[in-house]
User: Fold these one by one.
Assistant:
Number 1:
Amino acid sequence: MTKRIGLFGFGVVGQGYFQIAKKQKEKWIPDTIVVKDQKKRRPSDIKFSYHAQDVFDKNPDYILELISNTEEAYEYVTEALKRGITVISANKKLLSAHLPELISLQKVFGGKLLYEAAVAAGIPVITTLETHFEEDTIVSIEGILNGSSNYILSRIFNNGLSFDEALRMAQQKGFAESDPSFDISGSDVASKLNILILHAFGKFVGEEQIATFGIQNLGEDEIALAKSLGLKIKLIAKAEKDYRGISAYIIPTLVEESNLFYGVENEYNAVKINSEHLQDQFYQGKGAGSLPTGAAVYGDLVKARNGFSYNYSKVNFDKPLDEKLLNLGIKVLVKCRSEEIIENNIFSTEFIERVDGFYFAVGKVKPKSLNKLNELKEVSLIALPDYLSAEDILHELKEIQKSGELI
Amino acid sequence: MTKRIGLFGFGVVGQGYFQIAKKQKEKWIPDTIVVKDQKKRRPSDIKFSYHAQDVFDKNPDYILELISNTEEAYEYVTEALKRGITVISANKKLLSAHLPELISLQKVFGGKLLYEAAVAAGIPVITTLETHFEEDTIVSIEGILNGSSNYILSRIFNNGLSFDEALRMAQQKGFAESDPSFDISGSDVASKLNILILHAFGKFVGEEQIATFGIQNLGEDEIALAKSLGLKIKLIAKAEKDYRGISAYIIPTLVEESNLFYGVENEYNAVKINSEHLQDQFYQGKGAGSLPTGAAVYGDLVKARNGFSYNYSKVNFDKPLDEKLLNLGIKVLVKCRSEEIIENNIFSTEFIERVDGFYFAVGKVKPKSLNKLNELKEVSLIALPDYLSAEDILHELKEIQKSGELI
Ligand SMILES: NC(=O)c1ccc[n+]([C@@H]2O[C@H](COP(=O)([O-])OP(=O)(O)OC[C@H]3O[C@@H](n4cnc5c(N)ncnc54)[C@H](OP(=O)(O)O)[C@@H]3O)[C@@H](O)[C@H]2O)c1
Ligand SMILES: NC(=O)c1ccc[n+]([C@@H]2O[C@H](COP(=O)([O-])OP(=O)(O)OC[C@H]3O[C@@H](n4cnc5c(N)ncnc54)[C@H](OP(=O)(O)O)[C@@H]3O)[C@@H](O)[C@H]2O)c1
């Protein structure tokens, strides 16, 4: 039986979906495609509409929401769910902001919402959390969740490019937007981690609560330090749960060769799940791009057709969905221009040292401070693995300074 | 609604399942547990039976088949499927031998059969092939699928143990059976690859057809060679499909650091899938052990309860399920005591060289020859990556001989 499909958005993801759907036995070609910009040149053999209502007028079985805007996506998706229509979305910003409401709408009106492409694109992490881990207790979930940032870090560590050169290259390759701030500030990752936390721990924490620091201020000094220690820096997102509650943070992190994330390069994403029974699992796949994301959307459609939906099995619907995150300190190396910033934000400080006009310190930072520091220019933080002592870091910084590599 | 569960087998996997089921909200404690050996000491607080009929007499909703024997498993599983009962099995030997019939029985009588634990234990590879890749075209599937062999190789490469010491250690740790031949000869892997081929390519090839060579004859010389080249040896299973058909082989393989399998150590398993749309995916997880396998069985039960079953979506049921594999040559380094073996089995030979009583050669081997050679003592083969030339290998062998490391 042919299904009627309405599609919103015909950009990177929408075109990827379209290209894939055309080749299948079950073509699932949308009967309506709504886009926004009336002046844009489009393929002449496809009919486009500029009115959302055109999608709803056709009484579609499925709606694909693949647009770049969040507010309008919210309107389309809630409207569809209120009509009991099943929706596939790739929109992490929308989902991260409105999941609790979107879950209720599914319950009340019976339409389903699937969104595998929204987190780690091609990696089936949400489906796997919902099925394979349904009755297992998750201890932690950790990931490299932004392809652009990871691509930039790969160019810096493997090709010796500067941050700015690497960013330009990511933009040329189409991995980073012309305004890349969502990608490199960690904001995109915070949306994704927020969604994963709901599926892993059954709680909605909201991305504003997640301690987030991006790679935007990463300087030559931290890069030289990592290299001289034989380590790499990766933008790691991590959420864990223990008897006290959930903690979650996103921060550039020093990783050693034995860490599975060490080998995750370029536009790849990866997810590590630690659970009580299945213990360690690691998944790696393409984190962005037209075909992998389009395939994830098509895959959701196939799953929905087969009757699959998210159970939100970790959620206890008799209790509030919202949860306050733990306020635990994270051990970091901080670099900035002012000693005050360190004094006001870093505690358990192990050293403060002035090197070439910068202050360097090792100490701990609380989630709230991290979010504030992420807004400042010229402040750089990286998380340190436990085995690295402050003395090791200080020693290495001085060595780098001596050898003149530090700017 | 409580479901009635019948359990066959209370060994490593059965006990893992039981331990997990006891802790859940939905306990799913089997009402009948059938085991075999009447003399074995058992926990006194659990009731056991020694008669398969006891399971069927209770009219169970689900049967878990977790026994070590294949013939009796065949009887229980076919009996259950004929009664339309849903079965969870971890028995790769059974499945690999009888999948076509077991698929028909599901179709005819409506009972379902799930078996995630049978391949790569905790990694949800079959479910992922059936859902996420349902409408994607798979190009190749590759894996480290035997925890014991991989554990042995890790001890050899990371701790400098000899093969025999490493095997003893694997047995002490419970990763290898007291008769480890299934594990180290590649036979266990062949069953698993045979099952994966059905889910990835929709064809049943039969494990006898799969070119298989184990690690049982791996000698100091090949190990020294790999080490001096900065490589590791991993027992890699690979199946790929192109316009000509499917090829499949299992063989110890030289892998370089940039290969994701390089970092898969100890009892871990890993699977790499390359597909047209999702491109590269890589999954790693525990490949053996009581909790990971028990959790995979429990997970299957949850999936079955949720209405999930394998679609065998790659299978074209209008065509024969059986398929002949391609007979392509594989580039190998062979070591043996007789020049005749090389002449009779290796073609496109690039060199034959006598070193310390052994003949070494680089050339190609056909699947049928590989299977014959796997039966012989003192014949060792490793697959070579394309970039390594015969000259490089020969040069390195001579260097090793000079430095006296070669026995
Ligand atoms: N790109 C990736 O690799 C990737 C990966 C995972 C998730 N995502 C998510 O997928 C979604 C789409 O991303 P994208 O990369 O495909 O974006 P994109 O290339 O910028 O394309 C966005 C599309 O949405 C359309 N659009 C914007 N506002 C609209 C509205 N109000 N009504 C109808 N159409 C509207 C645009 O129309 P015009 O054609 O008229 O401009 C365009 O076709 C986003 O939520 C993004 O976060 C993207
Ligand atoms: N171990 C792993 O990590 C692993 C991983 C994946 C898949 N598997 C598969 O899972 C299955 C079970 O493996 P295992 O490691 O749990 O084996 P195991 O530890 O040797 O236990 C086998 C169990 O099967 C019982 N049994 C044997 N024949 C029986 C029969 N005819 N009727 C009833 N019970 C019978 C045995 O009974 P007694 O107690 O009376 O001896 C024992 O309880 C095998 O197919 C294996 O290939 C194992």
Note: Chain B has three domains: 5-114, 127-286, 330-402.
Number 2:
Amino acid sequence: MTDTFVIVGGDAAGMAAASKARREDSDLEIVVFEKGEWVSYGACGLPYYVKGEIQSLEALVSVTPEEFREERDIDLRTGHEVVAIDPDDRTVTAVRDGDEVVQSYDHLLLATGAESIVPPIDGVDLEGVYTLGSMSDGKELREYVARARDSEDLQQADRGPACRYLEDCTGPVGVVGGGYIGIEMAEALAANGFEVHLFQRSDRVLTGFSEATSEAVADHLRDREVVVHLGSEVRELADDGDGTVEAVVTAADRVPVEAALIGTGVRPRTGLAEDAGIELGPTGAIAADAYRETNVPDVYAAGDCAEATHVVTGESTYVPLALTANRHGRAVGQTVTGTPTEGGGVAGTAAVKAFDVEAARTGILDRDEAREAGFDPVSETITAKSRAGYYPDGGDVTVTLTADRDSGRVLGASLVSEYGEGAVHRSHAVVGALEASATVFELENYDLAYAPPFNTTWDPVLVAAKVLGGELR
Amino acid sequence: MTDTFVIVGGDAAGMAAASKARREDSDLEIVVFEKGEWVSYGACGLPYYVKGEIQSLEALVSVTPEEFREERDIDLRTGHEVVAIDPDDRTVTAVRDGDEVVQSYDHLLLATGAESIVPPIDGVDLEGVYTLGSMSDGKELREYVARARDSEDLQQADRGPACRYLEDCTGPVGVVGGGYIGIEMAEALAANGFEVHLFQRSDRVLTGFSEATSEAVADHLRDREVVVHLGSEVRELADDGDGTVEAVVTAADRVPVEAALIGTGVRPRTGLAEDAGIELGPTGAIAADAYRETNVPDVYAAGDCAEATHVVTGESTYVPLALTANRHGRAVGQTVTGTPTEGGGVAGTAAVKAFDVEAARTGILDRDEAREAGFDPVSETITAKSRAGYYPDGGDVTVTLTADRDSGRVLGASLVSEYGEGAVHRSHAVVGALEASATVFELENYDLAYAPPFNTTWDPVLVAAKVLGGELR
């Protein structure tokens, strides 16, 4: 009899698992339950959709439901919410329009994803308050942008260089959160002529990156007329009396806004797993082994609902990002079809573009986090040219590199440059070093590609390794 | 008494050693003998100087002789040719204007560099035949370009898209050799309005890269109106009767030219070492251990005159490139001042820009070379998008990845993309894998940075690893 592989959640991890399983086994029965109507979509593209660089939500979909059903022979059931798992009976119960379906499984993958964290403050439910966790969130926000622009009859070409000083500037709007979603949305909204106020609780944006990167990005945001409020925890979103947001309130300020976007991170959707007795790990996400199997045999977890193992610390970590979801989902698809495959660890690598600046981070940069993992972190920050000094154009690349004092082991890096000058792709070298547990002395000797249009003879990553190595020697 | 560190050759390796030694030891006596007048110059920048993107030769000099002498307290003796080494007496003999100087040393570094290989054919000494090994070569070629352009009264803006069909096209000129120097010079000359004929003995350009890269670059050269003659060994440079080149002659063709550039590689300058009983390795370059010490105690060799150890094969190899020269020179400077420092291996990593295309290669790609080193090479070539499919602009990245069938170990890669779309910096990931002797399965799990403006969720390097891993599994 044919095995049945049931998947809960039809985004990156779920559909990567389904597709891989199908490629490996043409007989396997594959059933995917997806609560919404969209599957396999690039949520990372939503800010660019809101910005207007991407014309339709459909463009974010890499494979359509019809293609999954017809070309890949996957029993994809959209509009089905799984409400219970019975690991003893090996069944899941799904609901659609009030009707229950009970589906048995041989292998089960939980790919329930994450949901936006909404801070516990007054006003988050007001009209004009948005999040950006789902396709429908993106649609709503894009519609708001289009309405606001129409009502102001504002063309992008009319925007002055200092929008907030102009009479016909759209907005203002508030963005709550200075992580990568907040920053990408600040760009998306400012590019549409909005006066944007970015509120960040911490004293710097992109707290997961180095301070040098945070400063470079914040400076660039300010250059582009985004008002960056640091150390500004939002206390309340104020009601205009008619149920619509009219201001963002912090301890120090009351900033009038016409709309607010909340981008304060996500948390794993774990309720279903918890109810079924599936263990969560120390991070609060679903715990899974190297093969992504949970404490319950034949039940796997992958993507934004699950933990992963950090390649530097060897400890559990929660880094909900697209590549991990894809990779872990794919590994599960391979494992359940007979080739046990490890999903690999995560290095906490992330990239962001903010207007004309790009930045990446990888590994452990936070001193406390490094110390907790038993390291004695030492960091150096250098700035070097993105191309040979004599070569036309180019700019600066600023690299912060962190290593363990005793062992010299590379712990992490944060890089920032103009967009197109390679901070993000250069981080690939550091990821290679992290994956190999290489020392800064080894990294210093990496034979990286060099030619004048691409770097100085020592790529900025190598310059950072030289300087940090010099300190540790 | 103070030690004396003598260096023969004042370019990358020599001056990196001198500078590092000075930083580590302010008392050391440091003497550098340089045959010419230029030191520490970026020879890799010469094509861009000839092209006209760099306005002066001086711009290629990172540190001037005066700065070395005055700011770094280095006894730099330009115009001094070292003619003999006596390892027993620990002296070198240098000549300047016929006068001999004998200098004793405690540590000696040979950094004599490489010289252009000129094929043993008739006509290489004719007027109008150039090489590009030195600053003076670059100067001569730039002067030729300027003269030719003046005489034709050709402005770059006047150039039609198909120069060779225009009456007022400058040239034609022949470029002999389809390696990176030949290709960079084809760009430099074509950009100045010359009709360029590129002659390549092999059936593809950039033979050290993958076939896919070679084809992409050759296609792009043709798009830019460079006439690419493949499988065209040059038999003769024909004399116009007045001692000036008038044609490039191959077995199949006789192509009229007004000038010819020979870019057929370099060979190490080893005469001085050989005369002193210093051993050469199997590649014909000076042999040195991990610390760059030769068979003669306290005599080191670094840069384009010396071999290095290949990180993949562990065997001696000869890859004369700028980063290795800098790194090995620097390591020697550190070693002779009391901190024994390994120079690190080489992966044969190289990068090239050809008009609007960029390419990189690293590791072992040649099947025969891989087999000789005991591997069973398997390759896959994939093409993926440089940015998320829905993200504006971007282009294709083509990656060839080679691994050993049995072990899965990554052996090498070749990448090509539009300039700015990251083929070169993405190769950093593969270099990391090579330096760590990682398998393609490990590379597939590298947690590389992802965001829509920079790659697809799986960076093209990861796509290549997935596909190749699938074949090996």
Note: Chain A touches chain B through 73 residues (CB under 8 Å).
Number 3:
Amino acid sequence: MKSYFIKLLSIVMLCVGITNTVLAQNTKENTTTPTKDAITTILNRKSVREFTGKMLTNETLDTLAKAGMAAPSAMNKQPWVFILINDRKTLNLMADSLPSAKMLYKAGGAIVVCGDQKKNIAGNELFWVEDCAAASQNILIAVESLELGAVWTGVFPDNKKMATVRTILEIPSDVIPLNVIAIGYPSGKDVPKNKYKKENIHWNKW
Amino acid sequence: MKSYFIKLLSIVMLCVGITNTVLAQNTKENTTTPTKDAITTILNRKSVREFTGKMLTNETLDTLAKAGMAAPSAMNKQPWVFILINDRKTLNLMADSLPSAKMLYKAGGAIVVCGDQKKNIAGNELFWVEDCAAASQNILIAVESLELGAVWTGVFPDNKKMATVRTILEIPSDVIPLNVIAIGYPSGKDVPKNKYKKENIHWNKW
């Protein structure tokens, strides 16, 4: 009778072990795959200007463009065009020519978010700026989600910067580059700011 | 001896029960709290215009404003101000007065994202539009993350809409309302669009 109970006890203990291992693996998977929730990712996002130099794959840039295209747009015009860059020479040429984008020398890629003026809404010729800014923000959050880093460097409405980007990337005249988003593997030096300010909130009226 | 093993077995079985309950609760928490990863959340986000009428708490609106304030801004000027609304009468008054915001009758709240013109950068008087659009997009993603729904309804640069919102919310003259984001508990009728288009991507140059 004693040995019967010892066997039964062994089986029960084995079951405990298997069950806990399976549950523990599920729990571990939730913390090691890129599954930080969206709000945590939004709060962790920071402007990253220091990169290791490792290049981004086409697949990564395509994933980021897909996130950009998921933004809303006025009247669903989707006025954006994305130039995805992971050619070292092009990145270096842009770094040479744009004073505010020197981080491109060490970036692994870049996305230039452009507004197609043929998709403008008559009477609201600046909606493309809002739509492309929303798409750009989607890209920045997706970058953080992939544990990469990025910084949004402005191009529009600076005539000199717009001309420089247009020339290097051969952008047609009816398309305006809004920004150059430098993207790469962070060196780890950049950290998020806490920008929560009670004075920037009003309740129910001013 | 037999009763000793029965007692021991009972204790082991109790431990199994407690351990599995604790682990199961952890696992459950990971699926019911907002823990979808950020890219999935970005792709799931949709414009939600059909709400149940249930009101949003102050805490929820504050969380969304915090997400908004985590956006980047040109020269870190943070030119945004958020008017958080969960007063039924104010929501109804806005729905009465704004032709494109009738969904506010059933929304549980709203955020009006405004640009403080005192924080403008000389020579770049439209950067606030990009900054506030990026903040708005953060709010929309945070809304999706909380399993709520939202739709961005434009206000700027429509003079009539700007005057209406300014009057109802008593917004001072040096602050411009960019949009009204209607937020609420979705009725489940709105679904995400797949807006990925290969023709909106160029590689390394146009």
Note: The longest strand of chain A covers residues 175-184.
